[in-house]
Structures are given as structure tokens and as C-alpha cells.
């Protein structure tokens, strides 16, 4: 729980939410996501009086617990039969939802596609990434392309010596799709390093793997992609 970094919100006081939940950040983030999924498509003006009453009652309790102080105040006011605050409530709910969508989507776990056929390397990299990323492993070109079509890939690690693949042809295809690619290269293989440099492929990680360097390299690419 200590490693979870909460987003900064303008319309949500996370300190209040954490106090209610005994500083359980993981649970707090889960409830925030549930709130977003539950109310992101809510259309207040389409509800009948009974539905509106139930929704206001539900949001009143949840928003208070989560630290959405202004939204909670408005929900309480409306719950006490002061419906003149309904428009203000609807606007505040929209602001909260928009902020949750922006911040929570930016915190979603990224997906790495690892294209490699060396089990030892795969085991090491999967262990390095652990729960920081979702990792999809492709042992050949066909399964790699299938993953690209079906998954939201954030970055690709491509072993330069994977068997039965023209890696530079695949690299060019992935570049055309605007997918960031990092080659996996043995740092002692000077011929390969020279070849990828001559081709302008400067993005690579080297073996033996160095955890901090790999994470820094991946983070740099992910931050560049999202900027």
C-alpha cells in the first residue's frame, strides 16, 4: 500500500477518503474506479423522481466517504428536498467524473509485448516487471502480430537474435504502426550493436539485464509516448 501514489485531485480530498479507509490506498483507488464506472454515463435529466432519489442517496454516502466534499454537500442539500441545487450538483458530478477519467486512466498499468524465444531471458524480464506492467510474451512473429491487433500495447521489447524472424523488417513494420520498440541486445555483441546503430536503431536494452536501466529506459519511452 505504501508504494501506491495517489493522483492529485482538485475536486476530491484524498486525505478524507484515506481516513475513512484506515489509509488503505489500494482499497481507496478501487472504490474511486468503481465510482467512475458506476456514474460516468449517468444522465441526471433522464431519471424519474424515484430513480433520482436513489441516485442522490447513493452518491451522498459515497462522495462523503471518498472526500468529494462539495459533491457530498450538494447531494445532502438535494436529499433534504432542495432540488434547486440539482443543476449545480450535475455540473459538480461531471467535473468529478472528468477528473477521475483523466487521472485514473493515466495510472492504468501499461502493457509490454515481449517478443523473445529465450526462456531464461523471458523469466528474468517477467520477474523484473512483476506487477508494474502487464506482460504479453510472443515466441514468434505470428503471435506477436496477433497480440498487437488484439491488445493495447504500450511498448515492445524485441530480441535481436530471435529465431526465424527478420527482426529489422518486423521493426520497420512496428515503427510504421507508431509502436515504440526496444531491441534486446547482448552488450558484448559488437557486430549487432554496430548494425543496429548503422540502421538508426538506437533504442535498446542490453544483456545481462540491469533492472534500474531497463525501468528508466521503458519509463522514458512511455512518458514520451504520452506527452
What does this structure look like?
This protein has helices at 14-20, 25-39, 49-66, 69-79, 86-106, 119-129, 141-150, 167-176, 190-198, 211-226, and strands at 111-115, 134-138, 155-159, 181-186, 204-207. The mean pLDDT is 87. A 5-stranded parallel β-sheet has the order 2-1-3-4-5, with helices on both faces. 56% of the residues lie in helices and 11% in strands. It has 2 domains: 14-106, no CATH class; 111-226, Response regulator (Rossmann fold, 3-Layer(aba) Sandwich), CATH 3.40.50. It is of the alpha/beta class.
The CATH homologous superfamily of the largest domain:
Response regulator
H/E element string? Answer: HHHHHEHEHEHEHEH
CATH topology of the largest domain: Rossmann fold
**Structural class category:** alpha/beta
The low-confidence parts are none
Give the total of domains.
2
**Biggest sheet descriptor:** 5 strands, parallel
* Beta-strand percentage range: 5-15%
CATH architecture descriptor text of the largest domain: 3-Layer(aba) Sandwich
Spatially, the strands of the biggest sheet line up as: 2-1-3-4-5
- Integer-rounded radius of gyration: 24 Å
Number of strands: 5
Can you lay out the helices and strands and say which pair or pack?
Layout: H1 14-20, H2 25-39, H3 49-66, H4 69-79, H5 86-106, E1 111-115, H6 119-129, E2 134-138, H7 141-150, E3 155-159, H8 167-176, E4 181-186, H9 190-198, E5 204-207, H10 211-226
Parallel strand pairs: 1-2, 1-3, 3-4, 4-5
